Amino acid sequence: MLLLAPCFAISFVLPIVLSDGNLGFRANLTKLNPPTNITIVDRQLGELTITWKDNLSEDMKKWSDVRYLFEFKYFDSDDWQEDSRHQVPEYMRTFELHRGVSLRVKNILLDKQRSIVINESNWTVKNIQPPPGDQETLVSNFSCIIYNHSSMNCTWRKGSKAPTDTEYVMYYRQSETTRRCIHYFTKNGRSGCQVDQGIYDAEENILICVNGSNNTGTIRSYYAELDPQEYEIYNPPVNLKVLPNLTVKWDMPPGYVTNINCFAFELEVTDLDEENVHLFNAYWMLLMLAIITAMTGLLLLFAFRRCKVLETVFEPIPDPQKKFKALFEEYNGDFQNWINYQIPISKADECHPVVVEESSTSEA
Predict the structure, then answer these.
(1) What is the pLDDT of residues 87-130, one digit of tens each?
(2) Spatial contact of 152 and 197, defined as CB atoms under 8 Å apart
(3) Cβ neighbours of residue 330 under 8 Å, at least 6 residues apart?
(4) I need a surface site. Which of 253, 280, 285, 350 has the fewest CB within 10 A?
(5) Which intervals hold domain Type I cytokine receptor cytokine-binding (predicted)?
(6) Which residues lie below 8 Å from residue 266, measured CB to CB, with a gap of 6+?
């Protein structure tokens, strides 16, 4: 027991000491220094890795939790886009660098026990200028189509002020690998490039940069980020079968590893006699089936209530209290008293004495 006494003493004294230290720290806390030295340490087709120094003392980090609030906006926008609070002085994000972007970050101190803001610094701002070249030389109407995970076509229109001898080069990046597109074409006034090396991950965005060059001026580079699932055109299903009961079955085309629940299917049925075409969407068919079932149930319920079918089929059990209210309300269920019935009392049996006389006989 004596050995445990110092432990109990420490357990009571230590929180008091820590609390006093925290109060002293907060009492001496005045203005918080903002971050410094915002630096771009890596740049990959618009994907920037940004670091900074928080400019905070070790004492501040000891008595509080430090968070860094990061925001950005493009030069052609007035709205800052807020990101979540970060625990480390590093941030990575993809930007449309051809628009020019402003970055800002500030320090936030949180109370360790209650996680509330106890102080925050001013913003530190860094501007990233757009690439060199006139804004009107930038490509326009940029778009891409991905075909079945195996190829990608990207097209664009030449900038309005781009010289006629301008040649474009497109780079794309995915899975930390940057490649150069090599199959270029021109069609209907649009330039483009076909990527046929394969798209390796349908769930990872693709980073793209289109550069232009000529003999007379500088062409501003264009940056884009694509979600493959939003730009992909899929091959049709395979092994289509129609069973005798008019059930239609099919398989996914080869090469798809994505969950089948992520796909929606559309069925086209042509009436050969009338040559009418009917389209059936799998999701809409399920939705319509649910609506029809619900409407049918409501109509049947209304009809049953209207015709009192439910009362006939499910006849309720009679309740004596509703039929004989006086029996339960006035006589508390006393049936005998309710019907004024009296039990007859039988009379006691009367005894009538009987005298038996014996006649005497003489003996001879």
Answers:
(1) 999 999 999 999 999 999 999 999 888 888 989 999 999 999 99
(2) no
(3) 338
(4) 350
(5) 141-229
(6) 279, 280, 281, 282
Q: What is the CA radius of gyration of the chain?
A: 45
CA-to-CA distance for 344 and 336, rounded, in angstroms? 13
Average pLDDT over residues 190-213: 87
CB 123 within 8 A of CB 34: yes
Rounded-to-integer distance, Cα 133 and Cα 218, Å: 5
- State both tokens at 3: 């050995």
Assess if residue 19 is contained within a domain: no
Domain containing 247 equals 238-279
Q: Which residues are bridge partners to 69 per DSSP?
A: 85, 106
The secondary structure of 98-122 as a DSSP string is GG-EEEEEEEEEE-TTT--EEEE--
- Domain boundary pick from 102, 128, 154: 128
CA gap 191, 223 in Å, rounded: 16
Contact between 90 and 49 under an 8 Å Cβ cutoff? The reply is yes
Q: For residue 41, what is the domain's CATH number?
A: 2.60.40.10
Place of tokens 């109407």: 141
The two structure tokens encoding residue 325: 């209210």
CA 126 to CA 35: how far, in whole Å?
11
Specify the number of domains making up the chain: 4
Q: What's this model's pTM, rounded to 2 decimal places?
A: 0.65
288-307, pLDDT tens digit by residue? 667 888 888 888 777 767 66
Name the residue among 208, 240, 215, 102 with its Cα closest to residue 164.
215
Beta-carbon contacts of 63 under 8 Å, excluding residues fewer than 6 positions away, are 21, 22, 25, 26, 112
Task: State both tokens at 234.
Answer: 């899929």
In a domain, residue 159? The reply is: yes
